[in-house]
Design goal:
39% of the residues lie in helices and 17% in strands. The protein is α/β, with parallel strands linked by helices and 480 residues long. It has two domains: 23-261 and 464-476, Aldehyde Dehydrogenase, Chain A, domain 1 (3-Layer(aba) Sandwich); 266-453, Aldehyde Dehydrogenase, Chain A, domain 2. Strands 12-13-14-11-10-16-17 form a seven-stranded mixed beta sheet, with helices on both faces. A six-stranded mixed beta sheet has the order 7-6-5-8-9-19, with helices on both faces. Strands 1-2 form a two-stranded antiparallel sheet. α2 packs antiparallel against α4, α3 (100-111) crosses α4 and α9 packs across α10. The radius of gyration is 22 Å and the shape is globular. The protein starts with 25 loop residues before the first strand and ends with a helix. It binds NADP nicotinamide-adenine-dinucleotide phosphate (NAP) and magnesium ion.
């Protein structure tokens, strides 16, 4: 362990010359402070298992202090003029753009995602969310139909996962601040560094103290925060299991709750689709960010008549994906975020084999002995009742199934406890709209997949959650 990772190809590395402190504190009331209990934990680089930095674990007294700071700040921030709030959000967006390279590198080192994704997808979208919401600050009267006197809710507890660390922070912070709320944010244990760097940016932008507080820690810190009596609104993104626990804990309180949870999304390919484009859509759907994507197109439904051709071409395309050093500019598939997640993925792959499905994996470069790696994988011959067809794996593992008619495609796609997103691939516009309207999914992408925009609402049906984030719909959750 902790050996230098070695790869067989000629490297095209991004520089790693980004300053990272050995230790970080909690960001409370506009300052970095030590945790009261002095407990700490390490964050590691999942591509080589080396420790990057030591982080403070927020205990009860720290969460109390953060919520109190947010409450005090709310009195002033909620009355700050909309144009002034907009000025801060624009300033934050601009500073994120200026420091984009540094943020992308940090995201990749701490979380394992390929630099080309953190650089070209995550960080630009982070800036976009702040820009978009800056524009809303003085237009909130028009955000929610029928609500001509919208007011902020108060102190928001926001808990986010590790798959899009800074992007999830932006999705939560930008609308909350635009509407005049204050926040205590808890990033995921394995990926807190970019949220802490964002705290530095907020300081630089002179955001008033206490408006945003960031408490690092594990699940227990998150639990303390969402259950805190001083919190008015809870916004959570993470697993359905934890989401249910939060819903239970908040039931019977005055807290408003939004939950963005898991998914097992269908990607449906009709025989008349443009096959090469559809293959790229499948790749984007399941192998983007190592499949650590809540809306990943993890159930592929291919019309039976093209199944064999499609699978052959998918296998060929998969063999060209490069699993490698996340900091290499040519890497397509980076490191799995943690050992725990890798174990979970391997467990599901074992299940798939035991359930009688056929496993297909890309070979490619030899994997280094340190770090957490998983080759892009798909299973064929998957029964709709199989665990790999029903449960969220949250890794680069696709289950391929077939259908014969549009009716059967819809029925199979909707046969899931989740309902986050879906993809439909066909040459016929009329078919697209008919099928999209009948899919029980918060987002349906037509002849594309995994497209995100700050103005577009995102969220699920059924066990995929409550509420929407982004656009006008997302603002409603932060207004009375
Ligand atoms: P998770 O275990 O639910 O964790 C999410 C966050 O909640 C982390 O910050 C976690 O802290 C914290 N947490 C854990 N237990 C808690 C508790 N009892 N009370 C309050 N907070 C608690 O999920 P994950 O494994 O990190 O993330 C993967 C899941 O997120 C997947 O199921 C995925 O589908 C879902 N997801 C959904 C969306 C969406 O928009 N719908 C987006 C991204 C991810 P620690 O990290 O320290 O444990
Ligand atoms: Mg880490």
């Amino acid at each position: 362990m902790n050996k230098e990772a070695t790869w067989e190809y000629a490297p095209a590395p991004e520089t790693t010359s980004v300053s990272i402190d050995d230790r970080y504190g909690l960001f409370i009331d506009g300052k970095f402070v030590a945790s009261r209990g002095r407990t700490r934990f390490d964050t590691i680089n999942p591509s080589n298992e080396k420790t990057i930095s030591s982080l403070a674990e927020a205990g009860k007294a720290d969460v109390d202090a953060a919520v109190a700071a947010a409450r005090t700040a709310f009195r002033k921030w909620s009355r700050t003029s909309p144009l002034t709030r907009a000025k801060y959000l624009y300033r934050i967006a601009r500073r994120i753009q200026e420091r984009a390279r540094e943020l992308a590198i940090l995201e990749t080192i701490d979380g394992g995602k390929p630099i080309k994704e953190s650089r070209d997808v995550d960080i630009p979208l982070v800036a976009q969310h702040f820009f978009h919401h800056a524009g809303w600050c003085d237009k909130l009267r028009w955000a929610v139909p029928g609500n001509t006197d919208p007011r902020p809710i108060g102190v928001c507890a926001q808990v986010i996962p590790w798959n899009f660390p800074l992007l999830m922070a932006a999705w939560k912070l930008a609308p909350a601040l635009a509407c005049g709320n204050t926040v205590v944010l808890k990033p995921a244990e394995t990926t807190s560094l970019t949220a802490l760097r964002l705290a530095e940016i907020l300081e630089e932008c002179e955001l008033p103290q206490g408006v945003v507080n960031i408490v690092t820690g594990a699940g227990e810190t998150g639990r303390r925060l969402v259950e805190h009596k001083g919190v008015d609104k809870v916004a959570f993104t993470g697993s359905t299991e934890v989401g249910k626990r939060i819903a239970l804990a908040c039931a019977g309180t005055r807290k408003r709750v939004t939950l963005e949870l898991g998914g097992k999304s269908p990607n449906i390919i009709f025989a008349d689709a443009a096959i090469d484009q559809a293959i790229e859509g499948v790749v984007a759907g399941i192998w983007f960010n190592q499949g650590h994507v809540c809306c990943a197109g993890s159930r592929l439904f291919v019309e039976e008549s093209i199944h064999d051709t499609f699978v052959r071409r998918l296998e060929h395309r998969m063999s060209k994906l490069r699993v490698g050093d996340p900091l290499d500019k040519n890497t397509d598939v980076g490191a799995i975020n943690s050992r725990e997640q890798l174990d979970r993925i391997n467990h599901y792959m074992q299940c798939g084999v035991e359930e009688g499905a056929t496993i297909n994996q890309s070979n490619g470069s030899k994997m280094p002995s340190s770090g957490f790696w998983c080759r892009p994988t798909f299973f064929t011959g998957v029964q709709p009742t199989a665990r790999i067809a029903r449960e969220e794996i949250f890794g680069p593992v696709l289950s391929v199934m077939t259908f014969r008619t549009p009716e059967e495609a819809i029925e199979r796609a909707n046969d899931s406890p989740y309902g986050l997103s879906a993809g439909v691939w066909t040459d016929k516009g009329s078919k697209v709209f008919d099928i999209a309207a009948r899919l029980k999914a918060g987002i349906v992408w037509c002849n594309t997949y995994n497209k995100f925009d700050a103005s577009s609402p995102f969220g699920g049906f059924k066990e995929s959650g409550w509420g929407r984030e982004g656009g006008r719909h997302g603002l409603a959750a932060y207004l009375t």
